[in-house]
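Quick one:
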Amino acid sequence: MIIKKIKKNRELLQNFTALSILQISNYIFPLITFPYLVRVLGPEKFGLINFAGAFVGYFGILTDYGFNLSATREISIHRDDKKKIAQIFNSVIIIKSSLFLLSSVIITILIISIPLFRGDYLTYFLSFGVVLGNVLFPVWFFQGIEKMKYITLLNFTFKFITTILIFILIIKPADYHLLIFLNSLSFILTGVVSIIIIKFVFKMAFQFPLKSEIVYQLKEGWYIFLSTIAISLYTISNTFILGLFASNTVVGYFSAADKIRSAVQNVYSTISQTIYPHVSSLFNKSMGEGFAFIRKILKNFGVISFLFSLCLLVFAKQIILVVLGERYFNSIIVLQIISFLPFLIFLSNIFGIQVMLNINMKKEFTRVIVISSLINLIASFILVPLFFHVGTAVSVLLTETIVTLYMYLMLVSKKIHIFRKVNV
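Output:
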């Protein structure tokens, strides 16, 4: 028993290390290029790129369909059954590919028919390449079997090469299309090679799955999909809504500050990705073990996330001027307003993703997200036209606060007191 526990802890540490390196490639490399790009591109082009990213982000949500959580959980539970894993993998890939084809048709129609998009159509089509890359890149598979080392090395390599190319090739604002192309190409190549690894290293048999398996996976991901759509209404939608009422330059002010907030938050977001399949497995075996592990995570990392947020608030001006430069002076107030998002999102992730989804509270989780998203939409369409980037920041903070409190109160209403030991 002790040996088994030591082995499990070692596997968890190995996957945490691998996911940490993966996060480095996804976040640290962009963070390295970030100060350079905001200066080279300027607020206008930087804002346009982020507006396009928010637009294609909707199609990323459609093609993900909640599988990053539901499929991860399914594979984690059945990790010792190769035949079942193959059924899950093939079903998810078929569904995601079909949704990508649908997305391709929709985005083409929108870009051709709407002047706002048609005027810079190449920006949106190039940005759409990230969606294809994410469809091909089965992070959910590797997380589910808790074998991240192959894909981590691959992702790290492509991001490293892309970072070097950015410093060599992107030297003026007019190079923004090339920047988008390099970013999309990195995602696509990572996805293609990951599929090859699954085929030859993990001996996965690619075959058309049973209809019943496809229907099952669609049902499993449905509530998470709805929640993800709702979440998008107060994440990527904020940048998109701001772009509808303000110039690309103003979008650049908000996006630049939000990138800094996101970078700080992602320092510890690796933890949530690492523990999710482990937490799913624990709750599947014993509710007591699951909650005991959750309390440890809250105790050990809650203080860290709070301190990160406090530093963002106190040193917002210095951070903006050093990282972004004086042209982004209007980003200071944005960063101050959203400084505590890392702490709030850490808590809501624990309450919602780690706990509610693993104790059969999917409907309640979805309800929280949908109601909060509607509040965010109302707040955004009131505040953004009046206060632009500041209004967007206030709307985001308000919504994340509501999400966190609502989830906590929902758990308490079910007699689940997550901060202390209880009989579940």
